[in-house]
Amino acid sequence: MRHSRRWIHGWLSAVSLLLVGAVSAAETVKVGGAHFPPYVDKSNARESTGLLPQLLEALNQEQSDYHFTMLPTAIVRRFGDLQRGRIDMAIFENPSWGWQDIDATAVDMGLEDAELFVARDEELRGQEYFDQLQGKRLALYRGYHYGFADFNSDPEFLTRTYNANLGHSHDSNLLMVLRGRADIALVTRSNLYDFIKRNREHARALLISERIDQVYHHHAMVRAGSPISPEAFAALLERLRAKGELERIFSPYRIAVMPVVVGSSAAARAED
């Protein structure tokens, strides 16, 4: 009996060591998380919620070679964090959003969102209201790159040229429009419909443009020397896409899940 107990104890110890070894063998991949609802919502000081945590959870459940973890960053700080190696990846990006001179590779995620113009719905106001931006008060998100401004995110340029108020919240910008403190807000489509879902009483008070400032295809920016290669990350995304996981996570927010064109992913250097 004593020998049996020793054998069982030894077997359990061996299994525990194997499990610990398997966990420790996983490469940690640090993903930057900047406040960008509904992708990352830091309204809770203790933890972030949103689509990025959901995606990282799905990636971790899909395989055991890598452990994806989110580290806090900021819209304007994320470039430096990636260059210094504080983070390995920035997700939900576009190579044209200031990444041109940074040593990183763009991976097409096959996710499509857009930037829309939103005004207060008033009598006799129609879609033509969005044709001309000059002379209107714009509510913009500080640090964002807008198509109408040729992707120039410089605060002084936007304030001087477009009479822009630069905030840190899409919700606040929409409330400025509703309260008459701004004429037009530019809002990410996914965030706009999330706002309407949370604030149904404001739905009929908003005029949403048919004009689109930009349609953007989300990319992951993977730094040189990252624990995971761009090709390996692209392959993991394809596994989630094939299983319907990307559709489950993103479609409720009107983020289109698209097929990735062969050769478009893990081939574009941000500096090119």
Automatic annotation (TrEMBL):
Keyword annotations from UniProtKB, A to Z: Signal
Domain Solute-binding protein family 3/N-terminal: 28-256
UniProt keyword S-adenosyl-L-methionine, yes or no: no
InterPro entries (alphabetical): Solute-binding_3/MltF_N
Superkingdom of origin organism: Bacteria
Signal peptide feature range: 1-25
Name of the featured protein: Substrate-binding periplasmic protein
